[in-house]
Design goal:
Blueprint (H helix, E strand, L loop, with lengths): L1 H5 L6 E7 L14 E6 L2 H11 L3 E2 L2 E2 L2 E3 L5 H7 L1 H6 L5 E2 L22 E4 L1
Antiparallel strand pairs: 1-2, 1-6, 2-7, 3-4, 5-7
Length: 119
């Protein structure tokens, strides 16, 4: 979360989950880490999208996309098994506005989303 803040995108989100790369992945197989961030407004998400798309992080360009999962509550519901097991625990903040609506995203559509994910 700190690197996101250092890049100027550390405010305005209510959900943050880092899913690390699989440690037992085969050496020749692609294995990625993922980040899911729920912003309170589509404008904040769009700003983050444009700021991070293709930015090189630890030698790898980021690929930022609007997540199919949209809204804080949808993220909590989707990742509840990981959180309940204690394997991955997301950062969750109280929203200052209703971010619980679930919306879908069609690939190729202009970014108008609150939740971004990247690998």
């Amino acid at each position: 979360m700190r690197w996101l803040a250092d890049l100027g995108f550390g405010r305005g989100y209510t959900f943050f989950l880092y899913v690390p790369r699989k440690s037992n992945a085969m050496k020749n197989a692609a294995s990625f880490a993922y980040v899911f961030v729920n912003y309170q407004s589509p404008l904040q998400a769009k700003s983050c999208y444009h700021g991070l798309q293709h930015k090189v992080f630890k030698g790898t360009p980021l690929s930022v996309v609007a997540s199919k999962i949209q809204g804080q509550q949808a993220c909590l519901d989707h990742f509840k098994n990981l959180s309940a097991s204690g394997r991955l625990v997301p950062y969750v903040a109280e929203p200052s506005e209703d971010t619980s609506r679930s919306r879908s995203h069609t690939p190729g559509q202009e970014v108008d989303a609150r939740v971004l994910s990247w690998q």
